[in-house]
Amino acid sequence: MATRxxxxxxxxxxxxxxxxxxxxxxxxxxxxxxxxxxxxxxxxAEGITTNRVAEVAGVSVGSLYQYFPSKHALIAALIQREAQxxxxxxxxxxxxxxxxxxxxxxxxxxxxxxxxxxxxxxLYRQMMAQVPRLEQEATVRAVVDQGTELMAxxxxxxxxxxxxxxxxxxxxxxxEAVRAVIEVALRHREGLVHDPRFTRELARLTVRHLCGVDxxx
Length: 217
Fold this sequence. Notes:
Elements: H1 2-13, H2 23-43, H3 50-57, H4 61-67, H5 71-94, H6 102-118, H7 121-133, H8 137-157, H9 167-188, H10 196-211
């Protein structure tokens, strides 16, 4: 019973206190989470405090506590927001390429994924470290699975151009491979995400696997 109560207390500390119902409240939460991202990039997870985030956000600590009971809740909410935004932005940025030749569209996908992480590598590195600590794996996994479903649907629509037997399996392995390589680069060789050769090599790996040809230069 004590263990269950302790788990409940931990869950409460890392969960939002309430959800914004009005536009102004939603804007306040967004400002607070943007400030959380800035503090996380500058000071790391150990350097985050609710006072520091409130100061950067330009809100009172009392206002922050209306929504977030702790710094853990702030970071967890930030992870959830960024994961959802990654999916939306990937879909939006790839839309203009969907009618292009398949090698070009796939290369564009890789470029979008690398560029998106390269915009704030320190933030992604910090968030990746906090995902298991804050038990956010299920949240991130759900978003990744949605991205894989989008990829599978796209490949199914172009399956006559593919050199793979199982389209859905190819979508899964491709998305997981690209994501894993980018994450390893962020953790251990951050400079690679800013190197065009890295992106070209990852695009070549993807296009050769799926299409059997090299991507356009």
